[in-house]
Amino acid sequence: MFEFNPEKHYPKETESRVVIRFQDCDPLRHLNNAKYFDYFFNAREDQVPKLYGLEIIDLIRVYKAAWVVYNHNISYVRPAMVGEWVRIMSRILWYNHNTILVEYYMTDDSKTQLKTVLWSTMRYVTLAEGKSTDHSGAVNDFLKATSFELDISDISIKDRVKLLKAEIEKK
Question: pLDDT tens for residues 85-133?
């Protein structure tokens, strides 16, 4: 279970290094569009426990609620190719009382080329009724400690792709 420690620094972004597998690619050797989701979700699922000491299933058991995706917005910038090593970063870009927006993005291994950006918007819902509920307790602590907290009211994923490309090219 996540226990907030005010003395501890919590990274705002997770990062994984993975290889693009042959079985996940199309005949042109590009990562299949649907497989990006698997790579993104698996990378975050691997990194959250390492960075924050939190297994999401523990929050689900304690609070009897979970985040359910209700919107994906994905922008394919450059293809990921079979056998290529890539970096996958993720972060909670924004949240409110019952919703989070998780941003995932993929680069080449040297982090010089942006490949894909995904925004997943999720609502926090009760397990029993499947109805929206507010974040509370350790869930709120986790969100406060780890969220990037970007004002997304006037930004689109297209704008975000441009910003990420500029940040990556600057390095």
Answer: 999 999 999 999 999 999 999 999 999 999 999 999 999 999 999 999 9
Backbone angles phi, psi at 111, to 5 degrees: 60, 40
Which tokens sit at 2?
A: 């996540």
Tally of CB atoms within 10 A around 50: 10
pTM value?
0.94
Per-residue tokens: 129: 């009724």
Contact 29, 82 (CB under 8 A): yes
Nearest to 105 by CA among 25, 10, 14: 14
From start to end of the chain, where are the E strands?
14-19, 65-76, 85-95, 99-108, 114-126
Residues 130, 135, 141, 142, Cα dihedral to 10°: 40
